């Protein structure tokens, strides 16, 4: 439904859009916030939109997006620019912001990535984006991970969050132990592991585990490993950023599975 112009940041719908910054509000409502032209255009094609705010001075630029949202039964509000700025977490908000239902999808086939306590939303989002690019089957998030539906993580995925299946598990070690018992390979990144580049071929139905930024993979999760690998360091650094390490590991596995040794 096309609603009346909103100019006040005290409006209940505006305050709720801003409240989606908080995990508590996202859990209670089942909604996430998406900001900016590119992400909103991708979201409307992949998610069920609940509410759309469009800068009233830019409505002509978003006619197609508004029509798509209206066709879904979403509430569409022309709003004052200050409302967009209030509702958005971004330092330089664009002209459009929406709330959409958080997707619930089963994991796909092929390699998966598990995150063990990766706390930075940017790292979490970047790993999801890399998994999308490499065509992986999804991401498993253990306890203590950043919420992938937080605004910063959503932006870091650049739309990949709308395509990559995600599941959250309360006990990652228990989950991985069960998958190992089923015959699935569990590959853990560890500083004391074998050189990743001298490995033998790996099965494609593996789960690659990426540890937290500070402590790496937890002992309970590491105990589930069928393979432990490290990235060799030729310089003075002892480790890499979690999302950088994940990107290197994922894409070398992609090379192996797509092009062979």
Describe this protein's structure.
The protein has ten helices and ten strands. The protein has 261 residues and is an alpha/beta fold. It has a six-stranded parallel sheet with strand order 7-6-5-9-8-10. A four-stranded mixed sheet has the order 1-4-2-3. Helix 6 (121-134) links the parallel strand 5 and strand 6 (139-141). Helix 6 (121-134) runs parallel beside helix 7 (151-157) and helix 6 (121-134) packs parallel to helix 10.
In spatial order, strands of the major sheet run 7-6-5-9-8-10
Mean pLDDT: 93
Percentage of residues assigned to helices: 25-40%
Q: How many helices? A: 10
Coarse morphology: elongated
- Spatial separation of the terminal alpha carbons: 55 Å
Number of β-strand runs: 10
Could you say which structural class the secondary elements and strand pairing correspond to? alpha/beta
Strand content of the residues, in percent? Answer: 15-25%
* Biggest sheet architecture: 6 strands, parallel
SSE order? HHEHEHEHEEHEHEHEEHEH
Unreliable spans? none
Q: How much is the radius of gyration in Å? A: 20 Å
């Amino acid at each position: 439904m096309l609603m009346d112009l909103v100019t006040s940041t005290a409006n209940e719908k505006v305050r709720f859009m801003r409240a989606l910054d908080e995990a508590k509000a996202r859990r209670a409502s089942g909604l996430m916030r998406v900001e900016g032209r590119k992400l909103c255009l991708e979201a409307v094609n992949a998610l069920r939109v609940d509410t759309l705010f469009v800068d009233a001075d830019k409505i002509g630029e978003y006619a197609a997006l508004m029509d798509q949202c209206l066709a879904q039964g979403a509430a569409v509000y022309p709003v004052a620019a200050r409302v967009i700025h209030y509702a958005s977490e971004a330092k330089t908000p664009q002209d459009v912001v929406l709330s959409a239902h958080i997707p619930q999808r089963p994991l796909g086939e092929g390699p998966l990535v598990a995150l063990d306590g990766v706390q930075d939303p940017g790292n979490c989002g970047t790993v999801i984006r890399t998994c999308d690019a490499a065509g992986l089957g999804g991401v498993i998030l253990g306890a203590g991970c950043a919420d992938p539906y937080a605004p910063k993580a959503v932006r870091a995925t650049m739309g990949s969050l709308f395509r990559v299946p995600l599941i959250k598990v309360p006990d990652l070690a228990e989950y991985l132990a069960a998958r190992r018992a089923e015959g699935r390979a569990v590959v853990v990144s560890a500083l004391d592991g074998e050189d990743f580049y001298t490995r033998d071929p790996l099965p494609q139905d593996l789960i690659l585990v990426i540890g937290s930024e500070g402590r790496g993979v937890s002992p309970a999760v590491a105990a589930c490993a069928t393979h432990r690998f490290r990235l060799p360091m030729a310089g003075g650094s002892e480790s890499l950023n979690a999302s950088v390490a994940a990107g290197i590991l994922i894409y070398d596995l992609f090379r192996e599975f797509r092009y062979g040794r």
